[in-house]
Amino acid sequence: MTFAKRFFRPIPLSILGAGALLGALAFAQLERADERGVPPIDGSGSYEVSGIKVDVAARTADQARYGGWREAQRKGWKMLWARVNGKPVENAPGLPDSTLDSISGGIVVEREQVGPNRYVATLGVLFDRARAGELLGVKGAVRRSAPMLVIPVEWSGATPISFERRSEWQKAWARFRAGNSPIDYVRVSGTGADPVLLNAAQARRPGRSWWRMLLDQYGAANIVVPEVTLFRQWPGGPVIGRFVARYGPDATVVDQFTLTADTGDALPAMLDRAVQRTDTAYTRALQEGAMRGDRSLVIETPVEEVPIDDVLDQMAAAATTTVTVQIDTPDAAALRAQEAQLRALTGVTSVQTGSLALGGTSSLRVAFSGPVSALREALVARGWQVEDAGGGLRIRRAATPAP
């Protein structure tokens, strides 16, 4: 067999088919955006009051629904006031419906039953934070945590899923109104490169170098990994969920609990309750100081150390004033004597000769720790006559009075 036949023989069709299948699977995982990715809703900071039960009767179904929503706003306002101020609901002041309409941001229908002339429902009310805050007496900023990247992991059928495809656990975190929480959650949609970068295996990786790159890319300072393991008793039957709230690359357990949904249709409601309970656990850990910053996850630029002597010299140089002093120098001995007298003044750090004119007027550069006026006063106190001369000083020895 020749060299060309040995290295360029046809590739079997089975290998080509397997390669094409693997390529198609990889393409489907990254490109099928309709099968993964849940964008978070309500990133605003609205106040939310949920679980408001109303039962209103009226002439028509529309009037009953409208009356139910009105009643939900009244009850929701009192519940919000009591929650913010820590007082009983009975002490909450009443507001007219026109004011409630101006501060209300929307009605969330959790469950409703509409009849010909009756409306029975469980509702939630969203209140605008800026407008309602003035009436609630809320002032100042609420303490919040550092940005936390959320990676929800769901175990179902012994297989972990984060953002590889849509899951009920990811949808529950997307529905969660994070604006009311002291935890600053960074929730990603799960599109683009998110399934590759933030997969279930990455959530358990303790190495810091890769985490530093990811946190810097997503604008976060640390991570939280809420996990759920779902056990389905039979198709359409009860679903048991075991939840674990983890924090940081070391997967520190903050809290764990178990909830049960009676049927498969009740699974989203159970997961919503689990998200709220997990958020409560993270909030409690933040208040207790358990969710501290991790210095190993911060990319820091090394700061060049400066010796303290150099700092002191720079401070002294910044506070020193250089003054040009003109003085009569009939000979070299007189010049040396007057330089010594200037160096003896308090605050003078150096005296240097700028221009020498023996038998005439020489120029000296005097470094003084302080303003020029202080140097003038020191010279006058030593018996010198001081005059201004072109931005500097002209000094002479005072004449000795005749006997």
Considering the chains and any ligands shown, give keywords for the structure.
403 residues, alpha/beta, seven-stranded mixed β-sheet, five-stranded mixed β-sheet, 35% helix, disordered N terminus
Could you walk me through the main structural features you see in this protein, from its secondary elements to its overall organization?
With 403 residues, this protein is of the alpha/beta class. Helices cover 35% and strands 28% of the residues. The chain has helices at residues 3-7, 13-31, 61-85, 97-103, 129-136, 168-175, 194-197, 208-218, 267-287, 308-318, 332-343, 372-381; strands spanning 47-57, 104-114, 118-127, 148-150, 153-156, 159-161, 185-186, 222-232, 239-247, 252-261, 321-329, 348-355, 360-368, 384-389, 392-397. The strands form three sheets. Strands 4, 5, 6, 7, 8, 9 and 10 form a seven-stranded mixed β-sheet that branches. A five-stranded mixed β-sheet has the order 12-13-11-15-14, covered by helices on one side. Helix 6 (168-175) crosses helix 9 (267-287). The longest helix has 25 residues, at 61-85. The model is unreliable at 3-9 and 21-30 (pLDDT under 50).
